[in-house]
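FAQ: What does the model actually see?

It sees only this:
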Amino acid sequence: MLRQARSAQSAFEHFRYRYIPISQSGVGSSQRCDHRVGRFCFWLDDDNEQDPPPEHRRVPPRRAELIASLDRAAAALPGDGWIAGQRVRYLSEAGQMERAVAAARECRAQAWWCAALEGYALHDSGRFAESEAAFTRALGAMPAAEREEWTDLLPLLPADAGRPWRRANAAEREALARRMWWLADPLWSEPGNDRWTEHATRWVFHRMQDRARVTEGLPWRTDSGELLVRYGRHVWWERYIRGAGRQDGLVSYVKPRTSEFLPPLAAAMDPARLDERAWADDGVPDVTRYAPAYAHRFVELPHDLAVFRRGTEAEVVGAYAMERDSLPRVPRIRAALVAMAEVDAPAIVVRGTGYSPRGALRLRLAPGATVVSLEVREDSTRIVGRWRQAMVLQPGEHASDLLLLADAQARPATLDEAAPLARGSGTAAPGETFAVYWEMYDVPPGTDSMGVALQLVPGQPGWGRRQLEAVGLARAGRAVSMRWNEEAQSGPIVGRSLGVRLPPDLRRGDYTLEVEVRVPGREPVVIRRPLTVARPREDGRR
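And it is asked to produce this:
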């Protein structure tokens, strides 16, 4: 029965190979190679958008015949791990998710392998929390050597970034791996860590290839497994003709619209070092890729964050403004602002829904170091935007952060009035107008006026005031600034707002927006925030 099952699997993959389409693009002759892994060359298409074509009409019926053969074999040999694995694999591939989960639970092979098959089927079903629980059971029961392979981060790291991992002892590696996967979880607002379960699923698929015929017709070796663990399972293939007397070539494709979700190892060593640039496109090919099934595309999220003092706590305002050109006229938005101080710390979450691409969420937190994740989903297009960064929440003693507002005419006096007007982006165009809101704290009784100075200077806030002023750019050559006095009142929280119009000939680049406030009897307070000036694109985006 086992021999018949293996023969049926081999025959199906041989049949599938015969019906792989012939490439019309000549892509196989490309000399591009982003990563060389043993025998294989991996490259990322420039648009990363090509969806798999439909299978040839003759392939699904032959897969159904194979599944029927595996069903009979599993009934006769329920303790055979190879049969159980192939049955779960092809049921999942056929989209029969409930049957795949049931088949995994009928497995009577080694306990760790059956639990891993259940995790595999549950992951492909989109049941990530259940999948994570199943894989946790599998890790706890599998042989030590197997567990070490599954949890080894070295194949997932850039070649020049592995030294800390190599030098770490077993306990340190376990802690690093747990933090790495925690930070790699695409959405903290959803149950289960699908980036971790995807990694474990890839390892299960790697083990499924033992004594099985591979679609490509090549022997499955270590380099095959490394390519799989880095970039995922192949979902379609193309053959290309090399010419007379030469063997045809084959291009295998992973899912389109993949992204890198693993942060640098340095962030796992110290989460306080995580910043939004961890996932930025720096032109260097990523070592791993993943495309969550629940998202058509992950996109950069225009955002703005400001911190306000509320007693001994910090109130964080997380604002967002998704790009309109990728959304329907009336988008259906689900948003979440999540904070976690460490991998084992409870997630503090606030959620919101609406029909506008712009919005803001507010979250009360204790002061200190934490990682904040702003996550926004549009339901009809399945476009997901995310911003994630470590922060040290230290509300100002006398002043809050600056919050940019979309309505340049608005003059809110409280955070309740200001937050719904948040602009959701720290990027503006030359000549654009917007408003700014901030708060002063513990303004002494009897205060009836305060001096305010507004300055826009080149560079980021970290430069230091003296260096910024020394640069002295203008619209082309000097800093843009204004100073005035205005009426004020005393109180524990005094909200202030003003309108800003950028010079129309302001050069593109990074600036610091500074507001200096002079309250009688106090040292001046300077509030700084970054502002990027960019020309609008033809489609209105920046």
